[in-house]
């Protein structure tokens, strides 16, 4: 029997990629990104960490200056072609999904408009979590530029958040992954609590006999624990 933690992580990792898929209008093709100049880049500095909150998760990038952002995107194309012009085109949903499935990606440089795709942008919002670990802005930008190109990808273990935290703070970390894993562990613990309460209830019935004080808790406690989980 497979480890429930592994099963849950595998299933949810396959579902999590939907956060990066841009929704399409019924019967329409993929919508173009906002026109250049949509964002005021004058407040961005080279080496800044940019965050774009989405429905459930956050997309991250490192600002390189001159309206350019380095960020990691799942993408199948770098694994099948070396044509840089083709790879540099905006990643379509099909390319993104195949990249997630095959665990391939590219660290690419796009305009702020292509990176954010209409979402609001937070600047250096994670600095408060790392205190004195923030590297120099130029060092962060150089790290990002050095990593540009094809790379392995995992929604849980090597995603866009790992990329930017390595560049700006010196260590690849993903708080989204940590939160996800804690949620999976909590679900598993809840399931174990249901089983444990059932076993304790059955033991009390065997030792003390059938009675409302033993039978009702044996039925209702596991039920409410299961419902809460």
From TrEMBL:
The entry's keywords: Acyltransferase, Cytoplasm, Endoplasmic reticulum, Endosome, Lipid metabolism, Membrane, Sensory transduction, Transferase, Transmembrane, Transmembrane helix, Vision
Keyword hit for Transferase: yes
Coiled-coil regions listed: none
Protein localization: Cytoplasm, Perinuclear region; Endoplasmic reticulum membrane; Late endosome; Rough endoplasmic reticulum
Pfam families with a match to the protein in the record: LRAT
An example Gene Ontology CC term for this record: perinuclear region of cytoplasm
Residues in the signal sequence: none
A GO molecular function held by the record: phosphatidylcholine-retinol O-acyltransferase activity
Active-site residues per Swiss-Prot or TrEMBL entry: 160 (acyl-thioester intermediate)
PROSITE patterns, sorted: LRAT
Ranges for domain LRAT: 49-176
Function, as annotated: Transfers the acyl group from the sn-1 position of phosphatidylcholine to all-trans retinol, producing all-trans retinyl esters. Retinyl esters are storage forms of vitamin A. LRAT plays a critical role in vision. It provides the all-trans retinyl ester substrates for the isomerohydrolase which processes the esters into 11-cis-retinol in the retinal pigment epithelium; due to a membrane-associated alcohol dehydrogenase, 11 cis-retinol is oxidized and converted into 11-cis-retinaldehyde which is the chromophore for rhodopsin and the cone photopigments.
Protein family: Belongs to the H-rev107 family.
Protein name: Lecithin retinol acyltransferase
Organism: Eubucco bourcierii
Gene: Lrat
